[in-house]
Structures are given as C-alpha cells and as structure tokens.
Amino acid sequence: MKKKILYWEDVEVGAEIPSLPKTATSQMLVKWAAASGDFNPLHYESTFAENQGVGKPIVHGQLKRAWLVQMLTDWIGEEAFLKKFSCQFRAMDYPIMMKSLTEPAEERTTHFCKGKVTNKGVENEAHFIECDIWVENDKGEKSTPGKATVILKIKGDE
Predict the structure, then answer these.
(1) What mean pLDDT do residues 9-15 have?
(2) What's the predicted TM-score (pTM) here?
(3) Where are the domains of the chain?
C-alpha cells in the first residue's frame, strides 16, 4: 500500500487543515485517565467538579492536546515531521454522559479539531509549514487554541 505524502509544494497559505471530529464521553475520560495517569476527580466526579466551580466534570486538557496532534499527523502523513507544537487551555469543555455501558446519552459530535496554514518557507533546507490550530466545541467556541510547525518533503526528494 502506497503511503500518503503531503508535499510542501501542494500546501498554500490560507488552506484549511482537514478537520477531525471528536465526541467526548464520560467513558472516554475514564479511559484517558487510565492511559495518562491523570486521575484528577475534576474529570469524572460530579460533586467534586461542582465544588471546584466548574459545574460538572470537564474534558482533560491533555486529551484535547492529543486530538490536535492526531489531526496534524493524520494530515501530514508518515513522511513528514511535527517540529513544533503548542496549545493553551482557555475554556472548559464538557463530555456527554453515558446512558448505558456502551451508549452515550446523546449521539453527537462534541468537538472539532481545526486548523489553517498561516505561513510557509524554507530554513536550513527544511521546508516548513506554520499553522494555527484549535479545538472548537459544539457551541463554536475555540477552547484550545495553538500553533504548530511541520516539516514536509518536496517533490522529487524521495
């Protein structure tokens, strides 16, 4: 199977990165806590979250960060390199609670990872693309903005 390659020449400033839809459920947060070791009750315990002033359990910031990295690496493919990445957690995002062991209480996408190319250039023979990236919640709010720089191959450089 041929690998997908995103070439530097094929990316234009202003281009949108293909969005990555995500649905955060309370079950996903438990799985993330187990995988990451982040067992802060703010992410799964309603009474604790309420007492902390956030109302109800919130989505882990590092989970949203991982979603953004997934969006970028899905877009650039295996032949490119994610050189720089940063994001900020600016707003609380909430998961869908579970109706049963396997079914969320609602069937909907809760978040969209999005991005836009802001610059491209060459530095020390590396062909780079700079991007603004963000997680957008189902209200259209950018809760997790960030920036990334990727290094791409050029055509004929196989």
Answers:
(1) 97
(2) 0.93
(3) 12-152
